[in-house]
Prior knowledge:
The chain is mainly beta. The chain is built from seven helices and 15 strands.
Amino acid sequence: MSQTFNLCLSTDTLAADAQQLGVTIEDLHNIQIEVVATLAQIDQTDQIAQRTEQPEWQLQLDYRVTLLLESLAAQLEWPTWQPTQVGFVDYLWEQTCLECFLAGGAINSTVSINNAHEMGINLADGNKTSPYIEINANPDGRYALYQFKSYRSPATLPPTPLLQADGQTRAFINWTASHCPASNGTANAEQNSLSEQIKPVICSSTLNTAAKTYHYERSFSFLLSQIYNKEDVINDTGIDYIHPCVILSFSTTFGTTALYFAPKHASPPDFHNLEYWSVFDKQAALAK
Length: 288
């Protein structure tokens, strides 16, 4: 089982976006983006002691983009997968970007989502005081993970990198083939073997042989032990809220046009606004 999100397009600048891209508003609404979140426990082996350690949680995120128009596919900036590009890079939101925001008790700060409610802070106010994590990933393999103490705070650019539980090592993601287990190594492990598996696929429609649909997929996983000590959280993932988002960047004769997708939107679009996030359904997301 998984928790599935069907993302919708922000409509604040829809008419202008359609004009710049040379399509109709309906054409933009027909862009389909699905994000599937899956929780799994994986076994970790201590290579030195040669013993199996306590299984730990990983969050797998599968992003699936479908375009119905060749003209949109031709303008979409979707870089080719490059294993040599895998690594931490800032400002990925300025291009096509696969994003996910996470909040919950495991994300350390002075005020967490849970104790904000206990202190009588309503959701709107809690949005300004709750810590959260932002994950950015570019289809070519680059990624970044950031931690915020509260709403867009600290406000420095680039944001503060997310550190692992040891307080020194930068957190990372593992790129994976869709529906395949993630590697247990570093972010650069086994990327060459995956490069052919996660390229975008173009396939003909089964309903109309003259029509084509353009499919783009990327998947990555995030070891949750990076944000808490395994001894502290054994039977819980420590995540209470989730907000998967996508920015699609298109090259047009007018320059670059960005479209913003999320399960729900603020106006103007603001992925950081916790009021529009979804409750993380741990039971639904558990891998079977």
